[in-house]
Write a structure and sequence with these properties.
about 650 residues, 4 domains, about 20% strand, alpha/beta, Beta-Lactamase, Alpha-Beta Plaits
């Protein structure tokens, strides 16, 4: 029970006791008042009537006596009027049974003392008789009944006013405590906010100030921890001078990108400053470092390379490497030439006459990183021999490089729903499946293997069709979800990846809120990359908070790739995060990777969020990750993607079949 309710209850009980005591005293006083009135009237009537009866009693005029007694009795205030002669047994009496219009229980409870008086009728010094008067209690009971009812009604009214007024007053007085409770809940999820309203009471005001101070301290601590983890990541996987990937980071990036399920077409390039040693001897290390930093800054700010999946690395000396996912249309060489021209126009390149070579070639299908490096080295040697500062390898024919064909094909896929959904399980630390992540593949018209998202999604993004494809994936999942109600629904959560462009579109957010039911929200997790969350709008961030309150959950994918401190995640209602696979690969052989992953786990645990590892391929990796404290793993080592058979709208029955089938 809340403190407000406890105070309201206890104060209400106290007020009820006080008002009840007041009611009891008022009723006792009323009873005493009526008893005194009855007795006073009885005494007064007896005295007056005795004087009146004295002459008739002396004359033994019974008729006159009876007449006067009748007159008094008929007034209706008396229950008994009796005159008894002293010297005889004669008796003149009028009496009647009382009829009282009040409940019997009230009469028995109140028990009014009847007004009764005895007096002597005398003439001179002679006693003529005895006069007895008893008052009628009926009117007194009736008046007392009306007054008691009025007192009880007033008691109930005052009790209601006191209790309700006390409740309203306590709500107002204890409002800061409710805000403190909400602040504590937000702090538990690393939402560092302040209470801006200042309470009137000194004690609560001090408590609010202490909570605001605690919020600031926790925020600073969380940011410092996130910055420390990010710094460790940069020191391990980034070049200390240029802040791009180092040799280790580049090897892991290229290895992961060239995996079949991760691969997307693009072009790879090598940028080489040939006379770097001479420049170092002539100009000094500081000037050469400034030159290398200028090259890296130009690459990082190049508009065509502003994408979350672009890889930029410096592997030592004057060698820079690039990989950019690209649809590889006929104009992709123009984009490579633009990068070359921007580098050649750099002030330090021209000022110090640095000999810069850029060689590039398209990558249409996964290849081994060693093979790619070897081919680029050969191109570089050819470039030096031919003294060409830019050399692009021959573009092989590929059927998926025409923009118009891509647009027609993707729109047909949307119209015909010609995509397949695959689900990959996520296991917790007890080997139980707790989530199924949905993957999308495009069905080939010629019956070949479906294209993975890495192949066709860059074109979806370039043609601004991501919102339509996200809606299609959600509709297909909803069809599967509803169909499984009859066939045994998966008890865990479903994870759907949503593109950043879709989330930033108000029309998509409105469509999602209108078409996804509350029941579906409770079983759904939407997943965005860390890069996407770092670039969403403020309205999208507010929408994510609103949908989370309705039951939706948010997952962060590719944790460790945005280049931002993890502190920015505190602004989002993060339910879970997945560490990028490049930090997971062979973690049992790389202590620095393990140290960095441990730091990321602590960041998510501090935010009361789950932390998973993706891309797990070896049991040794699972063993290390389990020791580090991850909440679960996913990857080929524990479960491969499986094809989901989505029923047509008019069909029933959905089941899962193996990918290999």
């Amino acid at each position: 029970m809340s403190i407000r309710r406890q105070l309201a209850l206890y104060i209400g009980l106290l007020m009820v006791v006080i008002l009840s005591g007041n009611l009891f005293l008022n009723i006792i006083n009323l009873k005493s008042h009526f008893e005194q009135q009855l007795q006073a009237r009885a005494d007064e009537t007896a005295t007056t009537l005795a004087l009146t009866l004295s002459q008739s009693a002396q004359a033994n005029d019974d008729a006159a006596l009876r007449s006067m007694i009748d007159v008094i009795f008929d007034r209706g205030h008396f229950a008994l009027v009796r005159f008894a002669y002293t010297d005889s047994n004669k008796l003149i009496e009028r009496g009647a049974i009382e009829s009282v219009a009040v409940p019997t229980w009230f009469k028995s409870v109140m028990g009014l003392n009847p007004g009764f008086a005895n007096t002597e009728v005398i003439s001179g010094w002679t006693q003529l008789g005895q006069l007895s008067i008893a008052m009628h209690q009926g009117p007194s009971y009736e008046q007392l009944w009306r007054l008691v009812k009025a007192e009880c009604a007033w008691f109930l009214l005052m009790t209601f006013i006191v209790v309700y007024g006390m409740r309203v007053l306590l709500i107002w007085l204890l409002k800061p405590l409710k805000q403190i409770e909400e602040l504590a809940q937000k702090l538990s999820h690393n939402q560092f906010v302040h209470i801006h309203e200042k309470p009137t009471s000194r004690e609560v005001h001090s408590l609010v100030q202490a909570m605001n101070h605690l919020s600031d301290r926790l925020h600073a601590s969380f940011l410092a921890h996130g910055q420390t983890v990010r710094k460790l990541q940069h020191e391990t996987f980034n070049d200390g001078l240029t802040q791009v990937l180092n040799t280790k980071g580049w090897d892991q990036y290229l290895y992961d990108w060239m995996k079949h399920e991760q691969f997307a077409p693009g072009w790879i390039a090598l940028i080489h400053v040939d006379n770097l040693t001479e420049l170092n001897e002539q100009l000094g290390k500081a000037v050469v470092d400034e030159l290398l930093v200028q090259i890296s800054m130009q690459l990082k700010t190049e508009s065509s390379l502003n994408h979350e999946h672009v890889g930029i690395a410096r592997t030592g000396g004057g060698d820079f490497w690039l990989f950019s996912p690209d649809p590889l249309d006929k104009e992709y060489t123009v984009r490579v030439e633009a990068i070359h021209d921007s580098l050649m126009r750099l002030s330090l390149i021209q000022q110090h006459k640095a000999q810069l070579f850029l060689v590039a070639m398209p990558v249409h299908e996964p290849q081994s990183p060693a093979s790619l490096k070897h081919q680029l080295d050969l191109l570089l040697q050819r470039s030096k021999t031919e003294q060409q500062s830019l050399l692009v390898g021959a573009t092989e024919h590929h059927p998926l490089t025409n923009w118009v064909e891509w647009q027609q094909r993707l729109k047909r896929a949307l119209l015909d729903e010609s995509i397949q959904l695959y689900s990959q399980p996520l296991f917790d630390d007890t080997q139980n499946i707790i989530q199924q992540e949905i993957h999308c593949r495009l069905i080939e018209e010629d019956g070949e293997e479906p294209l993975m998202a890495g192949y066709f999604w860059p074109m979806v993004d370039k043609l601004n069709l991501s919102q339509e494809f996200d809606r299609l994936v959600i509709r297909l999942w909803q069809r599967l979800f509803e169909n499984q109600k009859d066939t045994g629904r998966f008890k865990g959560k479903w994870v759907l990846n949503i593109a950043g462009k879709s989330l930033n579109e108000p029309s998509f957010r409105q469509w999602f809120a209108e078409h996804v039911t509350t029941e579906q929200l409770n079983d759904l997790i939407i997943e965005c990359s860390e890069y996407t969350l770092a670039h969403v709008t403020v309205k999208t961030q507010m929408w994510l908070h609103d949908m989370t309150e309705k039951g939706l959950r948010l997952s962060v994918d590719h944790v460790g790739t945005s280049g931002k401190s993890f502190g920015f995640l505190a602004h989002f209602p993060v339910y879970q995060g997945k560490i990028e696979r490049r930090y997971i690969r062979d973690i049992h052989d790389h202590k620095d990777n393990a140290f960095f992953v441990s730091g990321m786990i602590q960041v998510f645990q501090a935010q009361s969020a789950l932390c998973f590892a993706e891309g797990v391929e070896k049991q040794e990796e699972i063993d290390v990750l389990t020791q580090l404290g991850v909440d679960g793993v996913m990857g080929y080592a524990v479960g491969r993607p499986k094809l989901l058979e989505i029923p047509k709208p008019q069909q029933n029955g959905a089941h899962i079949v193996d990918d290999e089938s």
